Amino acid sequence: MEMERVRARVRARAGVRAGARARVRVLPRPLTAVLAGCAALGGALMLLPPDRPAQAPASGPAARAARAVTAGAPAVLPDLTAFIGDREAFVRTHVGDGQAWAQLGAAYVERGRRTADPLDFPRAERALRTSLNVRSADKVEGLGGMAALANARRDFPAARKWGEAAVRQAPQRWTSYPALLDAYTGLGDYKAVRGTLERLRELRSGAAVPAVLARAAGVYRDQGRREDAQAALADAAARARTAAEEAEWQYRAGELAWERGEPADALRHFKAARRLDPALGSARAGEGRALAALGRSTEALGAYRSALARQPSPQFMLELGELYDSLGRSAEARAQYAALRTRVAKDQTAGVDGELLLGRFEADHGDAASAVRRLRAEWARQPGLEVADALGWALHRAGKDAEALDWAKRATDKEHGGEVRSAPYAYHRGMIERELGLTGPARRHLEEALRINPYFSQAGVRVAKEALEAMDALGEPVVSGPPD
Length: 484
Prior knowledge:
By secondary structure, this protein is mainly α.
C-alpha cells in the first residue's frame, strides 16, 4: 500500500496530462511461479551502469554494495541489506528518481535470489515499475531489472521481452545483456545465446571482465566445453575485486567440479566460497552434496540443514529429502518433501514458477501422471533442455517409454542443442532405452552417465549399476561406438 501511495504522489507531482508522454507497455500475462536455485550469476546486480549512480551512499556497507551493484558484481548479504535500506530512505524523499527506484528493485531481486525469500520479488516489481513510470528518458535500468526479476521467477518469455527492450535502448551498455543470456537459455534458443555472448564479450572492459568471464563459463558448460568453462571461472575468480565476487565464482567452479564427478575438488571450491562469504547458502548446500558423495553423511546432513537455515530453497529440500531416503530415514524424507510442497505453494503466490521442480519431484516421489501434465504445459511455455529431460523422465515413470525416448533424445542430441555433458540426462535416456529393449544404446548411455559423474544421484547411481549388472548377467551384447 505504501508503494502504491508513493506511485500516486509521483503521478500527481509530475502533473502530466493524459497522453502527454508514452508509457512503457507492461506484459499482459502475470508472471507465475518457484525459485529454481541459482540459474543466474548474480544477474540482478549486473543491470546498473557504472557511470551514473543516483546519489549513492558515500561510505560504509551500503556504499560497498552500491559499488558492487554499479560494477555488475555480487555483494555480500549484509551490505546488500544496508543498500536496500539506504535506497528505501532515498526514494521516500526523491520519489521521481527513476534510477534510484531501479537500483532498489535490482537489489530486491538479488536479495530474494540469495535468501530464497519470494516476498522480495513483489517488492522488486513495484519498485521497478515505478522506475519505468516516472519521468525519465533512460528506462534501461528498469527494463533490465524487470528482465532479471522474470529470470529469478523462471518466466523466461517475459525475461526475453524485457531484456530485448533494454538492449534496444542501450545496445552499447554491457549490463543490458546478461539477463538475455539467461532468458534465451531457458527458452532453448542456443543460436541467440551464442550471438548474445559474442556481443557481450565485445563490450567487456575493466571491472566488467570477471562478470563477463563467468557468464561465458555458463555458456561453455551448456556447449559441453567444460575445460573452457573451468578456465573462464578460474580467470574470473583471479580477477575478482571483492570477496563477494570471488565467492560467487568459486561456488560456480564447485558446481562444475561436481558435474565432472570430482566431489573432493567441488568441496574445496564450496568451502573457499563460504570462507569468502559465510552467508552464501548455495555454497553450503554444495558442500552437503559433495560430502554425501564422499560418504560423509552426517556432515552432509548438517551442511544441508545449515544451507536451508540461510536459504530455504525447495531444491535444497528435495536434495536433503533424497539424502534421507538413501539413508533409510523415510519419515524425515517425507517431512522434507512436505516442506518442499509448502514452500513451492508460498513461492507461487509471489509469481515464481515451480513447475519444473514440482514435475521432477512428482516423477520420482509422487504422481508421475501429474508430473507429465505439469511438464507438458511448461514445455509449451518455455522449451528448454531441462524441461525436455524432465518430461522424458516423467513419461518413463508414467509407463510411456516410446514417447519418453523422443524427449530424452531431444535433451541429449546436439541437433536439438543438447550439448551439455550431463550424467542425469544420460542416465534417464539409458533407463528408457533399457525399458524399450534397446540394450546396446542403454548400456552405452548408462556407462556414460557413470563415467561423467559416478556420484550424480544416490538412488540413480545404484539403479544404473544394477541395470548394467543385470544386462551382463543376461549376456546382453556390448555394442561399441559413441552414444546415439
